[in-house]
Amino acid sequence: MALPTMTAEQRSEALAKAAAVRKARSELIEQIRKGSVSLSQVLERADNEDLVKKTKVAAVIKALPGIGPVKAAKLMDEAEIPADRRIGGLGSRQRAALLEAISN
Q1: Which pTM was predicted?
Q2: Ranges of the chain with pLDDT below 70
Q3: How far, in whole angstroms, is CA 44 from its chain's centroid?
Q4: Which residues pair with 86 in a beta bridge?
Q5: Which of 22, 39, 45, 59 is the most exposed place for a label (fewest CB within 10 A)?
């Protein structure tokens, strides 16, 4: 399927929207990194906010204080969450397993 042709104005608007979303997502990750937003708060926000819903689980876990890439991968494996899963795609069992794994 071919991509639709866009006018220069439409392309400019799309680029601006994408940049705004990336900025908002990086601000969310930074809040998690600083500890001002917890994992449980992120999971609650996912029910109402598309930005949070579309954020990758791995990025959120890696941003948690004291958790690096190796530990994040181990936690996701224990909770049976695929590496490319997004927050909005987590089921209630996966959310509970993730919160349990983080609290230990």
Answers
A1: 0.84
A2: none
A3: 12
A4: 56
A5: 22
Q: Report DSSP letters for 35-94, one per residue.
A: TSS-HHHHHHHTTT-HHHHTSBHHHHHHHSTT--HHHHHHHHHHTT--TT-BGGG--HHH
Q: What is the pLDDT, as a whole number, of residue 57?
A: 94
How confident is the model over 77-94, as pLDDT tens digits? 988 899 999 999 999 999
pLDDT value at position 53?
Answer: 95
Q: What percent of the chain has pLDDT over 70?
A: 100
User: Are the beta carbons of 60 and 91 closer than 8 angstroms?
Assistant: no
Coil, strand or helix: which one is 2? coil
CA-based nearest residue to 78, from 55, 59, 91, 97: 97
What type of residue sits at position 46? A
Neighbours of 60 (CB within 10 A): 23
Number of Cβ atoms within 10 Å of the Cβ of 37: 19
Q: ∠ CA(42), CA(43), CA(49), 5° rounding?
A: 75
Q: Could you tell me the domains of the chain?
A: 24-103 (1.10.8.50)
